[in-house]
Amino acid sequence: MNWGWGSWTPDDPGDMDMYSSFEDGSKRENRDIIQTITHEFGHIFGLDDAYEDDEYTVGSDLRPSAYDAKIVGIDDVMFDNHHTNAIISRIDIQMIIEAFRTGESQFYLDYDGNKKSTGTKECNH
Question: Do 108 and 72 contact (CB within 8 A), yes or no?
């Protein structure tokens, strides 16, 4: 993805570059390419990642796991796009609608000053 997370808007959702091989030259499997593209489209549609990231910190907050909070399932493409049967969940769709309704990127949980999406109220996993 080529954009800063805080700069997402419906009019300027960012760009996606996708490569058919890894840095070491090994080829990516078609399933991996499809699932990665699906996950990255989630960002283009205004969604944050659903997985915990202990390297993403601003201040003292970590990005929390929406799976651990029981908001998404383990098979949600924004939580684990390498899951064998990764899906786009109802909550993802609701949050995409909310992103375009409000013009703001959407977060699964409150953290680091980012407000939880109002789209998560109606569609818990």
Answer: yes
